[in-house]
Amino acid sequence: MAVEIEADIGGGRPRTQIVGLPDASLNEAKERVRAAVRNSQRKWPDELVTLALSPAALPKGGSSYDVALACAVLVAAGLEPAQRLDQTALLGELALDGRIRPVRGVLPALIAARRAGIRRAIVPAPTLPEAALVTELDVLGAEHLTEVLDWLRGEPDTLKSTFPRPPAPPADVPDLADVLGQPEARWALEVAAAGGHHLLLTGPPGTGKTMLARRLPGLLPVLAHDQALEVTTVHSIGGLLSPESPLVTTPPFIAPHHSCSVPALVGGGVGLAKPGAISTAHHGVLLLDDTSDGVCDPTNGHFTRTNVAVHDHLTSGTAAVDEGDLAADGVCVGVCLVPRRIPL
Fold first, then answer.
1. Confidence band for 329, pLDDT divided at 50, 70 and 90
2. Known Gene3D superfamilies for this protein (predicted)?
3. Containing H/E element for 192?
C-alpha cells in the first residue's frame, strides 16, 4: 500500500512531530532529516513542523521514508516547487550529511506504487538494478538529497536512469551426476524434483543423506518470470539481494541450522514481520537437516509464532513441515538419523 505524506508548518513552538503510528526508527527520522536538509544547504523551518502519514490507522516503520519527509517539509515551507512530486514515489534513508542510503524492500514497494497509479519513483542509486525489474514505471536513482532537490527545480541530468538488468550468473550447485551408487535415493530425488514432492531421507550417519539432499536444487528448472519476481520480492524484504544481479532466477536453496529458533524458521520479529527460512525458500528447496533435533516440539502439535504483526499457528505434519501450512511453494527435504524416533 502506498503511504502519502503531508506536511504542515507553523502553529506552535519550534519542533518536529510525526503522526500516523510511526515506529521508533521512523520517529527518529525527524533528526536524520533535519540534519540532512541543513547539510544540503537548505534551511529547516524554525516553526512547528507536523508530518502526517496516511493511512493513519496502519502502523508504519523503517527508514525508507526519509527522502519523502525531507521533500514534504521543504515544499510545505515554500523552499522547493511541488509540481514534479505529483504521482512520484520517493524511497531512501538519509545520512546526516545528506547521502541517500539503500533500503530493503524496494521491489515490493515499487510494485505497490505501480498498483496505486504512481508513474515515477526515485530510489537510492545502488538499488537501481532491483528497481529496474518493475515495468511501466519511470525509475530514477539518487545518491544525495541535493540531487533530488535540484531535480525538483527542473535541473536536467541530476538523477540517474535505470539500465538493463545484468544477466544472472550461472548457479554453482552440486551435481547429482557426481554421486556414485545410491540408485534408490537418486530415484527419490528425481521424483521429488519432477513432482514438487517433499522428501524425508533417513539412515545411519555417513550414508550420504545431506550430500544427496544438497544436489536436489540442481534438478529443478529455472524459475518462470512470475516465480522469479515472487522470490526476488521475498529476498528484497529480507535484504538478501545481490546488487550485481538482483533478479533471482534459480530456485533458492535454504539450509537452516538444526538449532535455529522458531522465528528464524517461520519468520517474525518485533513490529513488521520479516521472512524466515521457509519464506526465503519459496519456489525452491528447504533442507531441514537433523529434523529430530529441530526447533519444533511435535508433541505440541503446532508451531506458535507471536509478534506485533503476526499471530498464527502452523500445524505440524511429517517431519514437522507441510507445504500448505507453511504458506510457501517448493520442496522440503528432511534428514534424520535412523536411531531417533520422531513422534508424528
1. low
2. 3.30.230.10, P-loop containing nucleotide triphosphate hydrolases
3. helix 183-195
